[in-house]
Design the sequence.
């Protein structure tokens, strides 16, 4: 594998610029939320855009104009429907190219080129094919599991999110799949690889990344099961939509272990890329700050609602934050 995969190490392609801008935006929003209460921005639109679900309950009063753009939080499932369909389609196109030599469609090749995909040839060029295939496959599995959880595990209340948040979520998973695919070494409209045996590209980081992905996904699933059971009786019947203090698994350490697990899932994909894919580390940076913001707001909600909330429990990172 080349010293740094995914194009020139520090070249700012349109795709990298976009992920960098998203990471910077969420970092700024997080820093603003960490300001002392007297300096905390209270602009209704700003607070409405960064909050969703239960955290909107802790926001300043919302004007009618903001409420007009409310979308049910249960529409989160739409994100994963889009991801399963779109990223499944991309995975199918990638598999066709890798195993059958079918070229990418002209529209897809042109889109990948605009986003920053590069034509790579030579011995160092075809070593990333297995990584891209594994990462895109893991992304599809992650989306399929989350879709299952939305319909069979989670119990959504009447909480809402902003229409902008909803549209961003739909576009996010489309962009995410394209980001993975831009990391594939291209030879014209084909995926370039050395030899015909893909398994010869297998390295230690593929195994480690896959194991970390499975471990993180299992913990995220357990956390969602715990949250779902808070609103069900022992027979599994939904009995209320109120918020309760969750316990068990990583909830003993942080208020939002599902967000922590989400971060670790993306880190596992960075490992699968060989730890040297700069573009994907920008994605991880965005995920880190966006999940940190959501975790902080969720932590504050729990502490404001429950006097008996565990004082030693952190928001996002065990023992740290």
Sequence:
């Amino acid at each position: 594998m080349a010293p740094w995969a995914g194009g020139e190490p520090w070249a700012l392609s349109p795709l990298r610029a976009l992920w960098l801008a998203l990471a910077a935006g969420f970092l700024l929003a997080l820093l603003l939320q960490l300001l002392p209460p007297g300096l905390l921005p209270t602009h209704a639109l700003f607070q409405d855009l960064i909050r969703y679900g239960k955290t909107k309950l802790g926001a300043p009063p919302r004007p009618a104009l903001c409420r007009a753009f409310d979308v049910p939080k249960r529409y989160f499932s739409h994100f994963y429907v889009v991801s399963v369909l779109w990223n499944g389609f991309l995975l199918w196109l990638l598999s066709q190219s890798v195993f059958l030599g079918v070229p990418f469609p002209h529209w897809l090749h042109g889109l990948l080129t605009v986003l920053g995909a590069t034509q790579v040839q030579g011995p160092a060029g075809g070593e990333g094919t297995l990584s891209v295939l594994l990462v895109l496959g893991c992304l599809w599995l992650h989306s399929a599991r989350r879709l299952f959880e939305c319909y069979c595990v989670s119990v959504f209340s009447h909480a809402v999110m902003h229409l902008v948040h909803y549209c961003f979520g739909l576009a996010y998973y489309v962009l995410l799949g394209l980001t993975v695919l831009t990391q594939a070494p291209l030879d014209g409209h084909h995926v370039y690889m050395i030899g015909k045996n893909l398994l010869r590209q297998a390295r230690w980081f593929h195994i480690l990344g896959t194991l970390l992905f499975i471990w993180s996904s299992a913990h995220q699933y357990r956390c969602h099961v715990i949250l779902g059971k808070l609103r069900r009786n022992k027979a599994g019947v939904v009995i209320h939509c109120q918020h309760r203090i969750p316990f068990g698994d990583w909830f003993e350490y942080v208020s939002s272990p599902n967000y922590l697990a989400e971060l670790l899932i993306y880190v596992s994909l960075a490992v699968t890329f060989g730890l040297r894919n700069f573009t994907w580390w920008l994605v991880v940076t965005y995920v880190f700050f966006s999940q940190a913001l959501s975790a902080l707001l969720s932590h504050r909600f729990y502490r404001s609602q429950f006097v008996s909330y565990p004082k030693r429990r952190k928001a996002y990172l065990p023992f740290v934050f």
In short: The chain is about 55% helix and 5% strand. The mean pLDDT is 91. The first helix runs from residue 14 to 33.
